[in-house]
Every structure is written in structure tokens, then in C-alpha cells.
Design a protein that fits this description.
Length: 228
């Protein structure tokens, strides 16, 4: 068994143990490696604690075959014995595609949590996402609070994988035969985050040395403590 399996499951268990038997939690699932690994781990660990996990996949209707991908997520979660809701949203583009889609997605998740009486919404952001967030903040000249990146808990939102690398999520999926989706938007360089992921981070790793993602994520943790 790859070391990614206990790493992901332990990270998820740590946050689930904060809730009580009979509680419901949502997990946002796109079908990518991060969210599939999170959903699988939640499904396993929640059973031990008598907590109900409900999947939510948001169809932004911005890509061809988006409805097909949403149905695929439902099938994958069904195989994990997790029921899954599909929520279709109409993205009103006001602040750019990324920001507008994010706003629509979070509004949909919060409505689903209210409708299902869920106590938490689990999101699959990883250590790599955290590092990218910090680097984007540095590029904008942001202050301490912004550079502290994403919190493990922000209100109803829980991000248990912020110490887990993206490659570990892929290894986790491969271990259990989970076929993860690669979002075409994740290779579209019109988006700043994609350029950071595919160009800036590899260049920094090559020119400065390995471990840049770890260092940026560690800085986020330190800056969050300072800001708090």
C-alpha cells in the first residue's frame, strides 16, 4: 500500500472526529484526483463514526460534456456507497471566469448544506493549491492575511488535505482504481493559476531548488499564525 493512503485517511479522520454520530457532511466532488481521494477517504472513515457523507458535484455548464462528467461523478460515488447531488448553475461572469465560477459554486454548496442540514462541507484543496495561492498573493503584493492562504477550517468549509500533495491524491486514486478526471481548464493558460502551476512553479523548482511548494505552504501556515 502506498504511503499516500494512510496520509489521506488520517488527515480526513482528524477533522471528522470533530463531529458527532448522526451528523451529515457534504463533500464537493469534481471527479479530479483530489476530490475523489477525499470522497473515498470520507466514505471509509465516516462509517466508523456513524456520520453520513453526501457528495455534491456542481455542473457549471461551461464545457461540452459537463453533464456527462457530473453523471460520471454520481456513478463513481455510488460505487463508494455515497449518494451524490448534481447542482447545475448558471455562471454570471462579472469578475472573470475563474472568480465568477467560484462564486456560483460556493453559493450552490452553501445552499445544498442548508437543504441537507449538513454541519460541514469538505473541499479537496491540497498543499499544491495552497502554494499556488500564496505565490499568486505575492504577485499581487498582498498583505499577511492574504498570504496566509486557505485555512483548514473557514466557517462551514473544511479543507483536510492542505498538508497532502496533489501527487499523493493521484497515488491514492491509483491504489483503489479510481479513474480521475483531468479538467481541461487546468491546462488552459488563460488562467493565472494554471500559468503558476504549469510554468512558474516548475521554473522555481528548477532554478531555486526542489521543495518550493512545501516552503510556500509552510510560509502560509506561519503567516496565518501571525495574522491571527
Amino acid at each position: 500500500m502506498t504511503a499516500a493512503v494512510p496520509a489521506v485517511r488520517n488527515a480526513v479522520r482528524h477533522w471528522l472526529e470533530r463531529y458527532e454520530a448522526g451528523d451529515k457532511v457534504l463533500v464537493a466532488v469534481s471527479g479530479g484526483a483530489d476530490s475523489l481521494a477525499l470522497a473515498y477517504a470520507l466514505g471509509v472513515e465516516a462509517k466508523k463514526l456513524a456520520i453520513t457523507v453526501i457528495g455534491v458535484t456542481v455542473d457549471h455548464q461551461l464545457q461540452d460534456q459537463s453533464a456527462v462528467q457530473a453523471e460520471r461523478v454520481v456513478q463513481q460515488l455510488s460505487e463508494m456507497q455515497i449518494s451524490c447531488l448534481i447542482i447545475k448553475v448558471n455562471v454570471e461572469i462579472k469578475d472573470g471566469l475563474e472568480a465568477s465560477a467560484r462564486k456560483a459554486r460556493y453559493e450552490a454548496l452553501e445552499k445544498a448544506a442548508k437543504d441537507e442540514n449538513a454541519v460541514a462541507i469538505f473541499i479537496g484543496h491540497t498543499k499544491d493549491d495552497q502554494a499556488e495561492t500564496v505565490l499568486l498573493g505575492l504577485a499581487r503584493g498582498s498583505g499577511t492575511r492574504s498570504l496566509s492562504g486557505m485555512a483548514h477550517q473557514n466557517g462551514i468549509y473544511i479543507r483536510p488535505l492542505l498538508e497532502i500533495a496533489r501527487v499523493q491524491c493521484e497515488e491514492f486514486c491509483n491504489e483503489f482504481g479510481l479513474k480521475f478526471w483531468i479538467d481541461p481548464h487546468n491546462s488552459d493558460t488563460q488562467f493565472a493559476r494554471v500559468r503558476v502551476r504549469t510554468e512558474a512553479m516548475p521554473t522555481l523548482e528548477k532554478t531555486i531548488g526542489p521543495g518550493i511548494s512545501d516552503a510556500l505552504a509552510r510560509s502560509a501556515h506561519l503567516l496565518r499564525d501571525d495574522a491571527d
